[in-house]
Specification:
By secondary structure, the chain is α+β, with helices and mostly antiparallel strands. Helices cover 23% and strands 33% of the residues. A hairpin with a 6-residue loop joins strand 12 and strand 13. The N terminus is likely disordered.
Length: 1120
Amino acid sequence: MAADRFKIDPSCDNGYWSIVAEFIDRRDRGEPVDPADFAKDDPALARRLRDCLAGMGWLEQALSGSDSETAPVTDRQMPQAIGEYSIIRELGRGGMGVVYEAVHQGLGRRVALKVLFDTAVQSRSARERFLREARTAASLHHTNIVPVFDAGTADGHLYFAMQLIDGRSLEEWAFNRDEPPGQSGATDKDCTQPASRLPSVRDAGTLLEPQQVARLGLQAAEALAYAHARGVIHRDVKPSNLILDCSGTLWVADFGLARRPEDAAVTSSGARVGTPRYMSPEQATAQWEAMDARTDIYSLGVTLYELLTGRALFSDSTPQQLLLQIIRSEPQRPRRLNRRIPRDLETIVLKAMAKRPVDRYRSAQELAEDLRRFLAHEPVRARRIGPVGRLARWCRREPVVATVSLVALATLTAVVSAYQVHLKTQRDAAVQATEDARQSLADALFERARAVRATQETGRRRLAIDLLMQSAAIRPRGELSVEAVRTLEVFDVQCTSVLEELGGPVAAVAFDPSSRRVAVGVGGRGQPVVAVWDRATASIALRLTTPGEINFVAFSPDGRRLAGTTDRHVCVWDSSAGALHVLAAGHVGLSTLAFSPDGSRLFGFADGLCVWDLSGGKLESRLLDVATEMGQVVVTGDGRTLAAAVATQAESRAEILRWSLPDLRPLEPLRVRDVRPDALAEAMGILSLAASPADNVIAASCGDSRIRLWDAQTGKPLGVLEGHHAPPISMAFTHQGDMLVSTDRFEVKLWDVRDGVELATLIRPRSSEMVATPALAASRDGCLATTGDLCRLWDLAIPEFHRVLARQRDRIDSIAVSPDGRWLAWMAEGRLRVWDWPDKQMRHEVPMSSRGEAAMTFTRDGRHIALVGTATSRIQVFEAATGRLYAEWPAEAATAIVASPDGRELVVAHSDGVIRRWNVATAQVTGAFVGHLGPVTSLALSPGGEWLAAGIQDTSGAGERTLFVWETSSGKLVRSLAAHPGVAFGVAFSPDGRRIASCGGDQAVKLWNAADGQLIAALTGHSQPVRGVAFNSDGSLLASCSLDGLVRIWDTAHGALRAELISQPGGSLSAIAFSSDDRWLLSAGGPFRWTHEGPGAVEAWDLSRLQQDLAQLGLGFVKE
C-alpha cells in the first residue's frame, strides 16, 4: 500500500506532493484507490488528501465546462425596474447572476446593478456569498476598487449597485482586442477554458509594452494592498476581474470569493475557490489555512506573466496534469518568450509566482514598491533566481525524484545515448548562457554610455556614442536611439592629436585657411622656432628660425605668409620655403598681428601701431605712436574695420580704438565703462581681442573676467559673457562666427555669441599643461588647438541640429507656423514677432498695447495672423508679410483661438467662458459652443473643420471632464472626456482627423479615437505638466513639450518614445510646432512661477539633420 511506502510526516510538503502524485498515477492506471485506505495509518494525511482530490474534482468540471452548480441558468425576461433602479440594458451574465446597466430614479446616477438569479435566490449559500461580496466591496474605499453604493431586495430580487466603469476587463483588452469594450461594474466571467483555446495577444496583434503592464500591475497591487490591510483576501485575481477604464485607471472587481476576517472558516473542504489557471499552489491543494495575501500576489503574478508573454502560464492539459503543473512545475522564463521584457520586470513577476508563499513578496505593498522602482528606473529589491537556486527549490519539492534522478544520471553516463543527450543539453545551455551574456553585455554597455554622458570628462560624447553602437550591435532597441539623441546634444571636445617632438613649451598657435597646417611658436631652453605641423601626416613639415621666443603667430588669408612676434621683433615668413623677413625691431611686447582681408598689409605694434606694406616689406604708416606692453589688433570678418587695444606701463585704457578699412579713417573708440578700476589696473586694460570671421562682431576680455561684445562697425554693445573665474587671456571665434571659445589659466569655455550664454566648459586642463599665456586657435573644419607644455588638437563637437532662434526676458506662451512654411510667429515682451522662416531672419516686430498672455493662429493660406490675449479686449488680424493691421474689433479677453479652414471665421475661447465663432469680414458672432465646465486652455479644429476640440480647466469640483468635442455645423456638444485630472493644457487633431492628442497637468500625453472617444494610448515620461502637443504632417509622430524643459517625440503607431530633446536654455516649455515640411521642430517657453527661472526662448531642432546623424550610427529613431 502507498501508506506503507511513504512514511512521511504530513506537515512536510515534499512528502505530501509525492503522495498526491502517486495517488494520481495509480488512479490514471485504473487501480481502485481510496484516500482513506491510501493513507490509513495517518488520518491527518488522509484528510489533506481528500481536500486536494475534492478540489481536483471541481477542477475537472471547471475545465470541461460541466460545473452544474454554477452553470448559468436562463432567467426570466429582463425587468423594467428593480426597486428604485430603472433597467437600461443587460451588460453580462455570470455563474450567479446578471449585471444590468441601470439608473437610480431619484439621483439619476448610472450604475451597474448586479442581480442574483431567481434560481440562486433559493440557495442559502448563494445568498450568503452574494451578500458577502456586496458587504466586502462596500467596506473598501480605494481609487482602484469598484465601489458598491447600495444593496437590497425588491420584488423578489436580491441586488447590489456598483459604479459603472466605462472600459473593458484586461482579458478583453489584452486577449480580445478586436471586440468592442464593454461597460461593466464587475464581472462573474471565469476563465476556465483550456489554454489552447484561449485567444492570444500574439493572435490579436502586438504585445502590451512592458512598462504599460508594470503600470497596470502597480495599480492592482496597490488596490490589493489596501484590501489586505483590512483583512480582505480576494482569492480570485485574474484578467477578467481587472477592468481598465478609458482614462487608463485599473479597477479591481468581483469580491464574490473574497475572505474577510469574520469569514475565516467559511470555506468548506473542497469548496470552489478561485479560477484554475490563476490558482496558487495552496489553492490547488485546498490548503485553506495557508491562503493569505500571498495567494492574491501569486494570481496577480500569473496575470502579469500572461500579459507580458501573451501565453498561458501552463500548456493545455488534463485537469490532473494542470493540478500537478501548478504544484510542481516551474514556469518558463518570460524573457524566453518575449526578449523585450526587461530583466528587472521578469524578476518581479517570477518572485510573485514563487511556488512557496515564503518565497513570494511578503505583501502586495512590497510588490507595488518594486514595480514603482522599476518604472522609475531604480534598482528593484527582488533578486533573480539562478540555476543553483532553481535546482535547490526543485529538490525541496521533489526529494525522492531528485535522488532517483541523481542515481539514474550516474548510471546513464556510461551509456552513449545518454551521453549524446547530455552533450546536447550542455550545448543548449551554453548557447543560452552565451545569449544571456550577450544581453547582459548589451545592458551593461547601455548603462555605461548613460554614465559616461553624465560626466564632465572631455571626449564623453564620442565614447558614449561608441558604447551605444556596441550595445545596438548586440540588441537593437528603441531606448538606444533616445539615449543617442541625448548624447548628440552634448557639447564636447575630444583630443585627437598631441603635437610631439616640438622641443619645448608652446605659447602661440594658428591654423592656415585650409585647416591642413598648424603653426606653433616653440620656446624653452633650446633654440626658439616656429614649427609648421602637417595634420595629414602628423609630422612637422617645416621649422622656421626666429630671432627670439614667439608670442604670437597668424597665417595670411591665402596661407602663403606666416607672421609672428617676439618681445622685440615683427617677423614674416614664406610659409612654404621658410624665408624670414624681419619687418621691425623695437618695443613689441606681448602684442598680436592682423592681416588685411586681401593679405597685402599687416597691422601690428612696434613702438606704436604700425601698418606694413607686404609687397615691399616697408612701413606704410604709423597709426599710434606709443610703446605698448600688450597690444591687441584684429580685423573684422567683413573686412571693413580695424580694431586695436593698447596697454602701457603708465596707462591701462579700457577702450578699443577703431579705423575704417581700407582708408584707415579713425572712428569713435569703444569704451568699457563698467570695469572696476582695481581690476583694470591689475589686468592692464583689455587682455584679448577676437574678431568673428563671419561678420563685424568683436569680443574683448577685461580684467574683471568678463567678455564684452560689440558691433565693430556701429559701435553698438551686443552683450556681456560672464562665467570665467579668472580673466580670459585668449579667445577665438568658430568659423561660422556664432560661437566663441575662450580660455583663462584654468579652463576652456564655449559661448553662444548671438544669445550671450555659456554653452559648456569644454576643458579643465591639468596644472602641468598651464603656461603663463595659453593661446587658442579654431580651424574652419571645427578643430580647436590649445597650448601649454604641449600643443593639443581637439575635435569640437557641437549639436548642429539644435539652435536657439531668439531669447526673450518674458515667457513665450504660444508659437505658430504658417501652413505654407513661410512664416514663424510668437509673442513676447509686448511685441508680435514674425520671422521669415526660409531665410531664418526676423521680418518685423509689431508692438502690442498689452503684455498679457497671448494666443495666435495663422489662417490656412498663411497670409494672416489672428491674435487674442488675456489682457486685451480686442481681436486683431495682421498681414503676415507686412505686419500691417488687417482687421480689428472689440471682444472679450480670450485664452485661445483657431481659424476655420477657409479663413473666413475665427473660433475664439473668451474669458467669460463662452467659445464664439466670429466672421472676419463682418466682425459679428455667427455661433457659440457651450456645455464645458471651466475656462478654455486650448482649441483645435479637425482638418476638415467638422469638429472642434477644447482643453479646459475643470472648475466644477469634480475635476474630471477636461476634453470636450463639438460638431461645428450644429454647435452640438458630442463628447466630454475625463482626459486629465484638473486641466488639459493642449489639444491637437491628427492630419487625417481620426485621432485627438491631449496633454495636461497629470504629466501625461493621451491619444483618443476622435470617432468614439476611446483612449488609444497614454504616453508617460514627463516629470512636470505637459503644456503642448503637435502632430507632424502625416501623423506618424507626435511631439510634446513640458515644464520639465523636455521635448518628447512619440511614434503614434506604437506609442513608443523615439527621441527626447533638451531645451538649451534649460527653461520650461509651453508651446510646440512642426514646420510644414516636418524638417524642423520648434518650441517656445520661459519661466513659470512653480518651475526654475530662465529666459524665454524660441528653439528649433533640425529633425532631418538629427535623423542623418542617427542613421550614420545605425540608431534611427523613426523605426525600430
